[in-house]
Design goal:
- The complex is a heterodimer of chains A (76) and B (446).
- With 76 residues, chain A is mostly helical.
- Chain A has two domains: 37 residues, no CATH class; 36 residues.
- Helices cover 64% and strands 0% of the residues of chain A.
- Chain A has three helices and no strands.
- Chain A is elongated, with a radius of gyration of 26 Å.
- Chain B has one domain: Amino acid/polyamine transporter I.
- Helix content of chain B is 76%, strand content 0%.
- The chains are: A mainly alpha (76), B mainly alpha (446).
- At the A-B interface, α2 and α3 of A face α1, α2, α7, α8 and α19 of B.
Chain lengths: 76, 446
């Protein structure tokens, strides 16, 4: 779409093909670049408390859901 | 981001994505606004219409049958407005970082939360998929299609769409399917509803038959809690990233999400209006399930409209199966650091496609097993979604406020207030819903 025959011919070469890909995509869109990861977040005291609150919430909810499943299975 | 060798870095996935991006660049250079918009829409519409899944459409149908043209019509529009506020954040995260939600949680908050997010998402998605297959089975059952054929057909569609190995093709095929969610609009028109009552409901946010009881509160909380579900966050961010959208496309991503919310709200309201004849004729919808709504409606809206309703339930389940199974595969690949793209050829990214197909096949098979505890699964699915929602929303909120992640696209102070309110509201509603499910006798029902 919108490309000339000359461009298409150039793109037949593997190196040229890669070149246009690098032109079109942002560097961190490449699969190779995605192997690099964001560093761990530096959490402030408030966020740390929030994280621990969420851990407690998850554990509490897992116990409650597990108990409810057990009660229902026993009743059926 | 790195000093990678450019030639070695290019893969088939990159080539496919670059081809899509070249089309976007070309349209932008020609100032073809409409074509550019049509090219960039997709994830937002899919996620919103995907959320209008079989259980949701049946819930809207039950609301129409129980309350008629009421407070719930404008309320549905409000819930999708809240869904827009949440999903807009995934657009910013996906376009700026080019990473999926699970990947960012894993990177920024560590393996515990990364694995928790994927584990809970997978379980929730699996249980939701079971309910979608029930919808597919029931929708086609109206036409006499045997359950095994319905499930097999759905699985063939999911697998065929995915193995195109091109995100673009997959997205367009699924969009073609999803747009049939609007099939509820002709059904609503054929229901011969009292349109002045419908208009009055939208303008006055009423009436609320029976008044505001504990039962009404439960319905409200259930609707709010079910408006934004975890798979939506994971799916849209992964799809935006897989599509190759960049920060330059955020405006289009927002528009895509807004269109999706509008279409989904339209279809939801249409499903409510379609079942108003049951309310008018005092037909109890309490025991109606799936295609039984179509059968119950048939004497009042005719066979053709009832058939459209059943097709709508089939379609709603079908689109949700496609999108939800994809969200599981995306999240699995993101956390295990393996291929996670619909642009990846099957031979290269086979674990991604295996997860995508496997979760759908197992859920579909479960629906066919005689005596399987399907009713209990329908109950538990909401609890699991509620379990995952508060952490998912809070991580989304934190990531969007993090300049190391979103750069200049952090939320503005006004957005912050709006988003905070929605996150607190959704989280609170979800928790209340969990309490009502786990302890059903805690609140009086009248």
């Amino acid at each position: 779409m919108g490309t000339s025959r000359l461009t298409s011919a150039k793109e037949n070469s593997p190196v040229a093909q890669d070149a246009w890909v690098l032109d079109v995509l942002e560097p961190d869109q490449l699969v190779g670049a995605k192997k690099e990861h964001y560093p761990r977040a530096r959490l402030g005291p408030g966020t740390r408390i929030l994280m621990w609150a969420m851990r407690a919430y998850v554990i509490f909810m897992l116990v409650v859901v597990g108990y409810q499943v057990w009660v229902t299975v026993r009743a059926s | 981001m790195s000093a990678l060798s450019p030639v070695a870095a290019v893969t088939t996935e990159d080539l496919h994505r670059a081809a899509d991006r070249r089309r976007v660049h070309w349209l932008r250079s020609r100032n073809s606004r409409l074509l550019l918009l049509l090219t960039l829409i997709g994830p937002g519409i899919l996620v919103m219409l995907g959320e209008n899944d079989a259980p949701s459409m049946l819930s809207y149908a039950a609301t129409g049958a129980q309350f008629g043209a009421s407070f719930f019509l404008p309320f549905i529009v409000l819930t999708f407005a809240m869904a827009y506020v949440v999903q807009e954040m995934t657009v910013r995260l996906g376009t700026v970082t080019h990473r999926g939600h699970a990947e960012l949680i894993f990177d920024r908050f560590g393996p515990f939360w990364g694995w928790f997010a994927v584990g809970d998402l997978t379980l929730g998605n699996f249980l939701t998929l079971v309910t979608e297959f029930i919808g597919v089975r029931a929708g086609l059952g109206f036409f006499g299609v045997p359950p095994v054929v319905s499930v097999a057909l759905a699985l063939v569609v999911v697998i065929l769409f995915s193995v195109t190995s091109r995100y673009w093709t997959w997205e367009r095929l699924t969009l073609g399917f999803a747009i049939f969610n609007l099939i509820f609009i002709p059904v609503a028109l054929l229901a011969h509803a009292d349109w002045s009552a419908v208009g009055h409901a939208f303008l006055s946010w009423g009436p609320l038959p029976g008044g505001f009881t504990a039962n009404t509160l439960l319905i409200l909380v259930a609707d709010i809690g079910a408006t934004v579900t975890p798979w939506m966050l994971f799916f849209q961010q992964s799809a935006v990233s897989d599509k190759g959208m960049t920060a330059a496309d955020i405006k289009h991503g927002r528009f895509d999400t807004a269109i999706g919310a509008l279409l989904a709200a339209l279809a939801g309201c249409a499903a409510v209006i379609a079942t108003i004849p049951l309310f008018v004729h005092h037909i109890s919808a309490a025991k109606l399930q799936a295609a039984q709504f179509a059968q119950a409606l048939e004497p009042y809206i005719g066979h053709f409209a009832a058939a459209l309703f059943a097709l709508g339930i089939f379609e709603a389940g079908m689109v949700a199966i496609i999108t939800i199974s994809s969200s599981s595969a995306y999240a699995f690949g993101e956390v295990t650091r393996t291929a996670h793209s619909l642009n990846r050829p099957v031979r290269e990214g086979w674990p991604f496609y295996v997860v995508l197909a496997l979760i759908a096949v197992v859920a579909g098979t479960l629906v066919l097993i005689p005596g399987a505890p399907l009713e209990y699964i329908v109950l538990i699915v909401n609890v699991v979604a509620v379990l995952a929602m508060p952490p998912a929303l809070i991580f989304l909120y934190l990531l969007c406020r993090d300049p190391e992640v979103v750069g200049d696209e952090t939320t503005s102070p006004l957005q912050n207030v709006l988003i905070s309110a929605v996150v607190v509201f959704l989280t609170g509603s979800g928790l209340l819903f969990a309490v009502t499910i786990l302890f059903p006798h805690l609140l009086p029902t009248s």
